[in-house]
TrEMBL record:
Its EC number is 3.1.11.6. Its main location: cytoplasm. Bidirectionally degrades single-stranded DNA into large acid-insoluble oligonucleotides, which are then degraded further into small acid-soluble oligonucleotides. It is found in: Cytoplasm. The keyword NAD does not apply. SUPFAM superfamilies: XseB-like. The keyword Transmembrane helix does not apply. The gene is xseB. This is Exodeoxyribonuclease 7 small subunit. It comes from Virgibacillus pantothenticus. GO terms for cellular component: cytosol; exodeoxyribonuclease VII complex. GO terms for molecular function: exodeoxyribonuclease VII activity. It holds the Pfam family Exonuc_VII_S. Heterooligomer composed of large and small subunits.
């Protein structure tokens, strides 16, 4: 059975749980590495989903013709 894709909210919740586990400091090193890898995957998924939303928002705004697109991330 295929694993369902997480929503942004589900991925963020899981990422927060991973961070909480790592912040306790009571995690064995090997388990911490696994949590870190899981956290990186979840972070990447969240970033991808945010980028998809930004692209959709930009497309919608461009279709309206009179609105300027706005960056979802603060530029440095």
């Amino acid at each position: 059975m295929a694993e369902k894709e997480l929503t942004f909210e589900e991925a963020m919740q899981q990422l927060e749980q991973v961070v909480e586990k790592l912040e306790t400091g009571d995690v064995p090193l090997e388990k911490a590495i696994t949590y870190y890898q899981d956290g990186m995957k979840l972070s990447k998924l969240c970033t991808e989903k945010l980028n998809q939303v930004e692209e959709k928002m930009t497309k919608i705004m461009n279709e309206q013709g009179d609105l300027e697109p706005f960056p979802m991330q603060e530029e440095e």
